[in-house]
Amino acid sequence: MSLEPIEPETAYELYLADREHELAEASLQGHRYRLKHFVRWSREKGITNLNTLNGRLLHEYRMWRREDGDLNKVSEKTQMDTLRVFVRWLESIDAVEQDLGEKVLSPAITADENSRDVMLEADRADAVLAYLGKYKYASVQHVALSLMWHTMMRVGGVHALDVDDYNSQEQYLEVRHRPDTDTPIKNKGDGERLIAVSDRISDLLDDWLASKWPNVTDDHGREPLLASAQGRTQKTTLQSYIYQWTRPCEYGKECPHDRDPATCEGAQPESPSKCPSSVSPHAIRRGGITKRLNEDIPEKVISDRANVSPEVIDQHYDRRTQREKMEQRREFLGDR
């Protein structure tokens, strides 16, 4: 087989362009982020033609990336699995030797290692929402965090909602995949669904729309449900709300880390994620799912509402202890 010479930067751009219509935007961003390190390493190694790539170099990159990024096993696996996909794509355009992708090694990890344990506990979520309800009622932050906790929606789903997606009379939200107007959702069409909301959430949404919604359209003429005077609230802004409002000092609690909020880096407006107690959007979703599991809500109901398979719930979201599961089974089966 005759290989076609190609520079790493060119291959990187061509690969991303080729995958643009196959991957959800969040997944594409993940590939872009992970593979840019490979391009950086290639530049440092003086590799100008990927035809020279071989198993030894791939191993060198794995060791370099592990050290450079201070990666744990799960992160290393994610990085190398993405590289393997990229190398297989290179095979398809005759840029590297066939079956080179088989030489991209990544660590084997157990199901437990592949799960994340951090979650927002129900009592903390209640405290955050109670504080927002008292001091920031019907603000965009209050609405955003309330929706994510009570509906278990992903940030992308909340970001995609329009005013017309909310049915006040019948109390439900319609989640829709609209990539042509910059609001794709994970799982694309399979992620579209109707989500019922409680009286309390419906009242909150009604009050937000009646009194504080800024009456704006986005760049496509749509009316975003979560918005500021500048238009649709960005996903990064929604994420920052979560980091900000899960800091104990932000919702009226003492710092559990014995820090002074006046000097603590994590207490500053520009760096809320540096607070050890702040949590990510995924932790809110995990906490919400675990709360419903503890309430004996059938897993299929949670799966459909949160748009996640029962298998993924078991591996990545269910943080109940074995004893909690046993006691729930005992209660359900009447073993008293």
Automatic annotation (TrEMBL):
Pfam families, per the entry: Phage_int_SAM_1
InterPro entries (UniProt xref): CB (IPR044068), DNA_brk_join_enz (IPR011010), Integrase-like_cat_sf (IPR013762), Integrase_recombinase_N (IPR010998), Integrase_SAM-like_N (IPR004107)
Single GO BP term: DNA recombination
Keyword DNA-binding: yes
Positions of the UniProt region annotated as Disordered: 255-336
CDD domains per UniProt: DNA_BRE_C
Tagged with keyword NADP: no
Compositional bias ranges of the Polar residues kind: 270-280
Residues of the Core-binding (CB) domain: 3-91
Compositionally biased intervals (Basic and acidic residues): 292-303, 313-336
Assigned keywords, A-Z: DNA recombination, DNA-binding
Protein origin, superkingdom: Archaea
Molecular function, one GO term: DNA binding
Descriptive protein name: Phage integrase, N-terminal SAM-like domain
Lineage of origin: Archaea, Methanobacteriati, Methanobacteriota, Stenosarchaea group, Halobacteria
